[in-house]
Design goal:
Layout: E1 2-7, E2 10-15, H1 22-29, E3 48-51, E4 54-57, E5 70-72, H2 80-91, H3 101-114, H4 120-127, H5 137-157
Parallel strand pairs: 1-5
Antiparallel strand pairs: 1-2, 3-4, 3-5
Helix pairs in contact: 2-3, 2-5, 3-4
Bound molecules: FE2/S2 (inorganic) cluster (2 copies).
One FE2/S2 (inorganic) cluster is lined by residues 95-101, 132-134, 136.
Amino acid sequence: MSMTINVNGIDHTVNATPDTPLLWVIRDHIELTGTKFGCGQALCGACTVQMEGQAIRSCVTPVSAVQGKKITTIEGIQSDAAKAVKKAWEEEQVVQCGYCQSGQIVAAITLLENNTNPNDDDIDTAMSDNICRCNTYVRIRSAIKSAVQDLTNQKRSG
Ligand code: FES
Ligand code: FES
């Protein structure tokens, strides 16, 4: 079946059954491989993308459910929050094996796009479903706090 979905601002017409997980359409049809497969059961967060600005698990989201919606992947996020998070991730050297990190970064960006001053509980709640087998959680939290500070400083100076 032919469907059109909008990913990172571009309409893509893909041939897939309606129940095909969005993750496989993103990776195999559109060939954006930044979004990862971890568990396939909405348990790890490796496959996190945004739909209309909110974080979703693309491994359990049928492609038919996203027609007419704006999907954003790690490759396409360009907000101020995204820039601050990516910079902080580099500066804090968060990544270890990297496998979970696209999902972690998309989750962190989504948090900061919706809450410019999250407290520890907000951060824990937003990130709790993103699993890291390399245990980078301390660095993730530190990077999110750096990104918040960066965004605050930008606001003050701008
Ligand atoms: S691959 Fe989607 S939550 Fe694990
Ligand atoms: S950095 Fe290796 S799983 Fe998170």
